[in-house]
């Protein structure tokens, strides 16, 4: 599952980490792949991206297999392929390699034994790294902030979905549009929710992720919110999201 939106700051990394942790807690072994050169999923799980011996870079370059690059995290059943600052140059290098859109898919052909689901945290662009994620994935989860420009971005992303389906990956489905940083007290949040539901009725998930300060504090402690503050509204929301996606 690729967690994707070309906009930054919409909650991709937060969702990748916390959905991954919530699914792992339910007993589903997860591999999280940090495909963003900013390495926020890596540092948010308490790992230092500069210290990682192997990273997603080696995987995309074909220099190492997935078993060699994945590491344990502080969350049982949640493993991580860390990112690295070198990945910033990879987008340019990738462009010169053969099969530049399918390198991640090839690397994930052999999913490590015991891993049930792979979650890919994408960078905030629709460049080659994201295309690699959409080519490797069977579904895309689209976190969307409850703000005015959300709808324009969504139309563009769903158009990209159609393009990828017709050219690279006919299996790619939309797992759902996830409304994030939802503030029940503002009319804007409700207006955007209604508008997105009206435009994309089949895709909007029932679970709403509230704006919750514990969610934003958790990464500085290197933990998902279900560990940092298990009783917070943010932890409850990500647990509900995990259940909803399992039922879908
Ligand atoms: N539900 C939420 N409540 C409060 N803060 C949030 C929430 N979701 C994300 N944030 C904060 O918003 C910022 C952007 O989120 P992030 O997941 O990094 O977005 P992206 O990966 O799409 O760029 C981060 O500082 C994060 O901690
Ligand atoms: Mg991110």
Describe the overall structure.
This protein has 248 residues and is an alpha/beta fold. The protein has one domain (2-247): P-loop containing nucleotide triphosphate hydrolases (Rossmann fold, 3-Layer(aba) Sandwich), CATH 3.40.50.300. It is built from 12 helices and 8 strands. It has an 8-stranded mixed sheet, sandwiched between helices. Helix 1 crosses helix 12. Bound molecules: adenosine-5'-diphosphate (ADP) and magnesium ion (MG). Adenosine-5'-diphosphate is lined by residues 8-14, 40, 124, 180-181, 209, 211-212, 215-216, 234.
Could you state the CATH homologous superfamily? Answer: P-loop containing nucleotide triphosphate hydrolases
Uncertain runs: none
Q: Based on CA inertia axes, which overall geometry fits?
A: globular
Percent range for helical residues?
A: 40-55%
Following the backbone from N to C, one meets helices and strands in this order, namely EHEHHHEEHHEHEHEHEHHH
Task: Give the end-to-end Cα distance, rounded to a whole number of Å.
Answer: 13 Å
What CATH architecture would you give? 3-Layer(aba) Sandwich
Q: What is the CATH third-level topology name?
A: Rossmann fold
* SSE class: alpha/beta
How large is the count of helical segments? 12
Structure ligands? adenosine-5'-diphosphate, magnesium ion
Number of domains: 1
Mean pLDDT, to the nearest integer, reads 95
Q: What CATH first level would be assigned?
A: Alpha Beta
What portion of residues belong to β-strands?
A: 15-25%
């Amino acid at each position: 599952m690729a967690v994707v939106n070309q906009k930054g700051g919409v909650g991709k990394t937060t969702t990748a980490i916390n959905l991954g942790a919530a699914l792992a807690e339910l007993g589903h072994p997860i591999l999280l792949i940090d495909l963003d050169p900013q390495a926020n999923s890596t540092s948010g799980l308490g790992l230092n991206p500069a210290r990682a011996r192997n990273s997603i870079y080696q995987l995309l370059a074909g220099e190492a297999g997935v078993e060699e690059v994945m590491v344990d995290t502080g969350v049982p059943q949640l493993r991580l392929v860390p990112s690295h600052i070198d990945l910033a140059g990879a987008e340019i290098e990738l462009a010169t390699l053969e099969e530049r859109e399918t390198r991640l898919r090839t690397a994930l052909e052999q999913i490590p034994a015991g891993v049930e689901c792979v979650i890919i945290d994408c960078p905030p662009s629709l460049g080659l790294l994201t295309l690699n994620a959409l080519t490797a994935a069977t579904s895309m989860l689209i976190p969307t902030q409850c703000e005015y420009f959300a709808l324009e971005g969504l139309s563009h992303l769903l158009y990209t979905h159609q393009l990828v389906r017709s050219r690279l990956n006919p299996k790619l489905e939309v797992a759902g549009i996830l409304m994030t940083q939802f503030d029940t007290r503002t009319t804007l949040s409700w207006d955007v929710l209604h508008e997105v539901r009206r435009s994309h009725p089949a895709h909007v998930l029932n679970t709403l992720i509230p704006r919750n300060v514990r969610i934003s504090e958790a990464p500085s402690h290197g933990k998902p919110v279900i560990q940092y503050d298990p009783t917070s509204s943010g932890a409850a929301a990500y647990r509900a999201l995990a259940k909803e996606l399992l039922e879908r």
